């Protein structure tokens, strides 16, 4: 009887991951991180960084669940770092710093962009806790009192913790979906979601073993099971299950218990996403389906220029596999660069004037300028004229 041959696992699964940033894509593989930014002149600027993780210092930090919590914290810190790198790519740090910026550098050893990012991050966390922890708990408590009033006191939702948790969870999911939908209506965010789609497509193309070109990348899906959106959705589903064991119906107390259990929720969610990214079976497809549906809100079909950025970031994050990679070698020459002789001795045509007009009208330039203060915008335009 012939033995069943077991298919070898794809060695490229889970090797690289990333996220979209304003007018660019960040990719990370192991300790290598690369951010490819589309500049206003049409060129692609790549910033590379070596990362360190505390998980390498202690084996306990690599245990299941614990490693998920560590990864979550490190990814939050990494998001702040990508904001700084994006600001440096725009050249804003070259301007003469103000007195406040000098004080930040001298006393806190940070720049203005980092300071604003930290403040924005703290406010974002507080808003998230209010929207996705306290508000659902308060709404669930309100519904409990409503049901009790309608039933004349014969039915108390607080006596049914499983039902209470499910209702509370659906309220949280509804708030989450509404939030994503409203955010997706913003023009600038739609551009980020397009880069998000480019990131997913390029990772899929790499994992499939195909050559990384815009033509190949375009063929793949923009919905990836290892996406952060799916991770957030998994955390909500896990939160519903954990909520079944919280017996109190007092909103503030329920919210505080959920916050205390957040590391457990994050750890379990990470393990599910990690497993889903490396396996493909009926159970995994069923578990991944809701998260993939939600990605219809957080990703958009990218254009060729956005896919070029994603490819540049991915290849730059894998220096051992793509040694000496430069975006201009694959996608150049960019505006302002001289044409290079090809194998037939001819010159690659560079339509400098056409690209200049496209630069002035391009969506990515408007996005970049919209992120600046009026003072920064004036400086930036002055630099372009030089």
Task: Count up the helices.
Answer: 15
Q: End-to-end distance, in Å?
A: 77 Å
> How many beta-strand segments?
4
Q: List segments where confidence is low: pLDDT < 50 over at least 5 consecutive residues.
A: 338-357
Strand content: 5-15%
Q: Helix-strand pattern, N to C?
A: EEEEHHHHHHHHHHHHHHH
What is the mean pLDDT?
80
Q: What is the topological layout?
A:
Elements: E1 17-21, E2 24-29, E3 32-38, E4 44-50, H1 66-89, H2 99-108, H3 112-150, H4 161-184, H5 187-207, H6 214-218, H7 228-243, H8 251-260, H9 262-278, H10 282-298, H11 304-316, H12 327-331, H13 352-361, H14 363-370, H15 374-385
Antiparallel strand pairs: 1-2, 2-3, 3-4
Helix pairs in contact: 1-3, 1-9, 3-4, 3-8, 4-7, 5-11, 7-9, 7-10
